[in-house]
Write a structure and sequence with these properties.
By secondary structure, the protein is of the alpha+beta class. It is built from 8 helices and 40 strands. The longest helix is centred in the C-terminal third of the chain and has 22 residues, at about 785-805. The two termini are about 45 Å apart.
Length: about 800
Amino acid sequence: MVLLMSDAFVRLETLRARAPFTTGRIARYSHLATLWKWRQLSEAALLLATALALLLLFFTSVAGACPNDLLRSELRSGELPDCRAYELVSPTYKEGTFILSALVAADGNHVISGSLGTFAGAESAEVTPTSLFGATPYEYSRTGSGWNAKSIAPAVSKYQGQGLRDVSADFEGSVWLLRTLTQPDGVTDLYLERPVGTFTEIGPATPEPNVVNRSKYSYVGASADLSHVVFSTEREDPLLRWPFDTTDFGSSTLYEYVSTGHASPSLVGVGGGSASTTLVSRCGTRLGSSTPEEGNGSMYNAISETGARLFFTAVGQDDHKCLGGGAAVEPSVDELLAREELPSGEARTVPVSQPSLSHCAEAPSPPCADANFEGAARDGSSVFFTSTQRLLPGAGEDVLAGDSAVTRGCTQVSAPGCNLYEYDFGPTGQGLALVSQGASEPEAEGAQVQGVARISTDGTHVYFVAKGILAQAPNGIGDKAQVGQDNLYLSVRECPGANICASPQRRVVFVATLAGSDEQDWRRADTRPVLVSRDGRFLVFTSSNDLTREHTRAGIAQVFQYDALTNRLVRASIGQAGYNDNGREPIFGSALAVASAPYISLIADGGYTSSDSPATEVATLAPENGAVFFQSADPLTSRALVDKVDQRDLVHEPIPNIYEYLNGSVYLISDGQDTSSVAEGSGVRLMGSSASGADLFFTTSSRLIPQDTDTQQDIYDARIAGGFPMPLVPPACTESECHGALAAAPALALPGSATQAPEAPPVQPLTTNPPKHKVKARRTVKHTPKHSRRRARKRSRGAVHTKAARR
């Protein structure tokens, strides 16, 4: 019998090595079985153990498996879906500070965040309003044994002015505004840090070396590797303009550095070759269609990934009259152009929005209209813009001069309104093309495009909003586009019947009709809470409309996901197994993570991003695995405390939970118990995810895993197949890290299934992760053996009296 049982358990362990347990019950019984002591078991126990082992073999052969199941149990991650496990990203010692805004790398292996604390090699920490995070930046990198923290700030013994401005796409480089100790206070130049700790001067930010220029120039973007850096100076100070720049004072201008070691930059808004200073407009130039000063427009991918192509707007005379004599060189309205590097090393400027059917001076054609940059493909192969002018057949044209030549954007334009255009630079490109096609009567109603919601990385998918009827077919649930309403459309580039796209065509698909109040979300910025996967398949957005006909509460934001491959629209902010009326009656609503706050300009109603940063790309991406990550103060699972919805943080906002939606089910990622508040609000905050969706980053003050031994807010990663084993020897407590006794580590939670089935009964709330708080050390009294024997006799007498009383 012993041999039979031993053989069964050998086979069980072999199977576990190949496919570890996935359900919490199986893992629980397996854990108990391995703790049994063979020599102390009776024959009956052996028979029972053998039967249990064979039963476990049967269940594990039919159940799914997580390769990290035992580790998930140790890390209290058994209730997480997708074989996720908690990983502590931030260090346990942060000098008692909280987490500021953070940037997440697309591969999920790096996070950069600011802190007012001094740790991880930083020489000092200070408040730096001009820096990206307003404080000292730290980088957290994932290794084979855990997450490591390091300061990426320069040594204060060499540089002053910790002005982190940007981070490369691979998180291996960064751009800084710094001054050496020999420069006057308030004078800063542009520096490249690559690798960490090595700073190389890119070039001066202003022509006068001793003129205070702090906060008088704006960093506006860079290529993915930071080899191309674009910036702008304060437009009304002549000391901040290079002598070769004849842009009208009071107008914005753009400068560019390529690589490092320059004495002066080059102009962007010019015609001619690389060293040209011939302006295309003295009225100014904007990256994309926005400037930091004006705070409206878009810079989304205005700088291509390599930096070889930049999209800029030449400001027209309709904005303001340019001063100065000589012949006018500026266009009458805003025009979109591209400045590109040629393989030969030369450069040229390509007109993008130039009319092909009529010219502004020709009568009786209506006045020319502004071209409004909306975004571009990441590689610069295609660019999208809106205009009320008819540039191609099938487009509408606004006959009102006030709409055409003055109003930038399309929301206030009357019918037939705005059009959406694409200019394709690719090898199979068609040049200028109309995206908002399909209107049955363009002369009467037109497309009436309102703006672009999001563009896929490769430019094949563009999601936009229009009030016209551009598609007759209904969406996946039978709804049709409505005239005069904010209809969300997808324009997808495809090649019917061909593997090689010799002649790409676009097809317009109706997605849903949004609420009028949704405009404040999908239009408000490049960092708008609208996400799209890199290939354009998945679109994730919020709306207060009942888009899926589920009788949800009106006026409260819900999260939706659209699958372009299946034409399926679903509500993601549902309840687990129908919990809380399946989320139909939310109190607070749900929200998505957006790009870090430092990238958003505070002027123009908090409108638009102040830079086209390669590091913020991941903040616009929906996970490629089809998952949806969102936060909500509403309890959507039983593990989220119901009474927590009545609590507020320090800024009087409801305290959220972090959720994941996947394949029709929703799961709680945070513990649902954290009611802590920090200076920026709730201790719980969704920070973002990797492009694949394998990593989900969030902050919490709960101690989710045993490795978390401090009482402060931390960054966590809920990573698929992740987790790190507990260290064999606890780390020594250094003098700066010893801050008194901590609460005892709670008991380990038993592992759950690899994917929580929605049919399963509600999961009980975790009791292992109470909100962090300091506890006083309990006073203990030592008992001598004599005292112990006396206490034992008293307990024995008490037991005898109790038995007598029962008789």
